[in-house]
Amino acid sequence: MRTERLRLRALNQEDSKTLYELIFSDKDVIKYTFGKDTISEQNIYEYVKQIGLKVLENNTTKEIIGLAGVLPCSYLQEDDYEFGFILAKKFWGLGYASEIGKAQIESIKNSLLKNRAIATVYHENFASIKCIEKLGLKYETTISTDRGERLVYLLNFK
């Protein structure tokens, strides 16, 4: 997946150190994504690979800015796809979340041929809530997950 400024690529073992420094060691980032999970640098590759996320990087510089992905989910008892993004703190507020979110929604609609897209977020992650609402998603419900309570947002394409 590629946008004007960003691209998603497969994770490789060498990404672990950078991802640890940018995301997994930053409590401000982790509290909005993986909850209380603490992941060591040695376990990042397997953990991220198991979830199914990809590395999000700048098209021009190839600098890693975070993780993102489109993943199957059944939060609403249907065969849905959830999109999500995790940005390193130094990249917050630069429009990257909206940019990759828009591309992910288009992928769910046009490549996966689904009728709707889902995003989940912690209730205190106000910046992400604002972003997904700006992308057109509406609050649907609250669910309990192994990572705590999450708000479910939905965008119907019909």
From TrEMBL:
<dbReference type="Pfam" id="PF13302">
    <property type="entry name" value="Acetyltransf_3"/>
</dbReference>
<dbReference type="InterPro" id="IPR000182">
    <property type="entry name" value="GNAT_dom"/>
</dbReference>
<keyword id="KW-0808">Transferase</keyword>
<protein>
    <submittedName>
        <fullName>Putative acetyltransferase</fullName>
    </submittedName>
</protein>
<dbReference type="InterPro" id="IPR051531">
    <property type="entry name" value="N-acetyltransferase"/>
</dbReference>
<dbReference type="GO" id="GO:0016747">
    <property type="term" value="F:acyltransferase activity, transferring groups other than amino-acyl groups"/>
</dbReference>
<dbReference type="InterPro" id="IPR016181">
    <property type="entry name" value="Acyl_CoA_acyltransferase"/>
</dbReference>
<feature type="domain" description="N-acetyltransferase">
    <location>
        <begin position="6"/>
        <end position="158"/>
    </location>
</feature>
